[in-house]
Specification:
Elements lengths: L1 H29 L6 E3 L6 E4 L1 H8 L3 H4 L8 H7 L7 H15 L9 H4 E2 L1
Antiparallel strand pairs: 1-2, 2-3
Length: 118
């Protein structure tokens, strides 16, 4: 009887552990940051950025976040501190979009007015 009770407890513990671990994995996958972000765009105006769409399309956060950390307002802060070149983010985005066009893939805008809005 003691062996059966011990086995039952181990099975229950394993099941509970798997459920908790699975919940953590699902929560991590579903929480990908905001769907839409408004980025500081300098004198030309803000840039509406479809964050979730980029995450889904690119699949690798470091494609962008190797330039700046994942923190709200960080682009403007880094520029004000002189730690991010004036058009570094724009050049990165536009370069990626242009490369995708060259490869015959669907891409985002490449002109000022399509991104910036005053």
């Amino acid at each position: 009887m003691k062996v059966t009770l011990m086995k039952s407890k181990i099975v229950v513990l394993c099941v509970v552990s798997m459920l908790l671990y699975g919940g953590v994995i699902v929560a991590g996958v579903e929480k990908k940051g905001p769907e839409q972000i408004t980025l500081y765009g300098g004198q030309r105006g803000v840039v509406g950025f479809p964050h979730r769409q980029h995450q889904t399309t690119l699949g690798d956060c470091n494609i962008c976040h190797n330039i700046f950390p994942q923190k709200l307002g960080v682009i403007k802060d880094l520029k004000n501190q002189g730690r991010l070149a004036k058009k570094r983010v724009m050049d990165h985005c536009r370069g990626c979009h242009r490369n995708r066009v060259k490869q015959g893939q669907k891409a985002g805008p490449t002109s000022c007015r399509k991104c910036h809005s005053k």
